[in-house]
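Sequence in, structure out. First:
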Amino acid sequence: MPKYNNILVPVSFEAGRNAAQALEIADAIRASGGRITVLHVLEQLPQYASDQLPEDHMETARSTVTGKLAPLARDLRDAEIVVVEGHSARSILDYAEENAKDCIVLASHRPGMQDLFLGSTAARVVRQARCSVHVVR
C-alpha cells in the first residue's frame, strides 16, 4: 500500500459521513513523518443573508467548527486543523493543490438520485483532484 506525506482530510458534519473513519484511514496510509490536515469548509452565504447576521458570525462559526474538529484530531500526531470559507468542492481542490497535498481522504454518503443530477462534493473532488483520492463510505 502506498504511503503519503501530506494528506488532506476534509470533514463535513452532514449525516452519513464518517469523519473518524476517514481520519483513521489517513493515519494508516501516511508515511513516517507525514502530516495530516483536517479541513472544514464554511460555505459562503449570499450577501442578503450574511447582512442579517451579527458582524462576527464567521469568526464565531470558525471557532465553533474548530472546537468540534479538535476532538477528532486529538490522537493524531502532526495533524493540523484548518477552516476555510468557500464552496466545498472547489475549496477542497484549491487547498489540496496550493498546499501540495499528495492524497485526499474524503468521507462520503451513499449516493442517491439527487447525486445523479447535481453531483456530490466527493464526486467532484474525485473527478478533478490532481492527487490521489481515497473515498470512505
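Second:
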Amino acid sequence: MGYPQRLLSEGERVDLQLRPHWKALVLPVITLILTFGIGGFLVAVAPKHGTGAQASWIAIGVVALAIIVWFVARPWITWMNTNYVITNRRLIIRLGWIHRVGRDIPLEKVNDVSFRHDSLLDRMLGCGTLVVESAGEHGQVELDDIPHVEETQREVATLISGDPAADMHHHD
C-alpha cells in the first residue's frame, strides 16, 4: 500500500517507501513455531482425564495465547505500522498503530545523512541504521533496520544535495 497522494503537497512526489527489514520478523516467527511445538507437546503429555485435566489444558492455552499476542502479533503489527517515506521534499516517519507517532523533516533542513551496519548479519542482509542529522530541534534521528541502507543513504544524500537529476519531475 502506497503513501496516500492526498497527503502530499503540490509538486511533491514519493521517492522511496520503506518499512523495517524483514529480519525484524525472524524472532517472532521462531517464537510462533516454538510456542506451537512446546504447546503441542504439553497438551500431549497433559493428563487426559481427572480433576486437573481441563484446568491444565486451559492453562496451556492461555499461556500460549499470551506468548503469541505479546511476542508474535505485537512485533508484527509494529512492523506493519512503521513507515519511512522519502519524497523529493521531506522525510516522513510514521510509527505505531494505536499510539501513533509522526514526524516530518524537510530535506532542506537535513545537514547530513549517513548509515552504519550494526552487525555482520546487517552487513550480509544489506540493512542497517540510517542516521539523519537535521538543523531542527531534534537534531539526530536514527532509523533502524532500513533495507538496502547504502542505496537509501545515497538516494537521500542526492536529494538533499539539490541535484537536478534527483528532482527531474519537479518544476518551479
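Remark: The first helix runs from residue 26 to 45.
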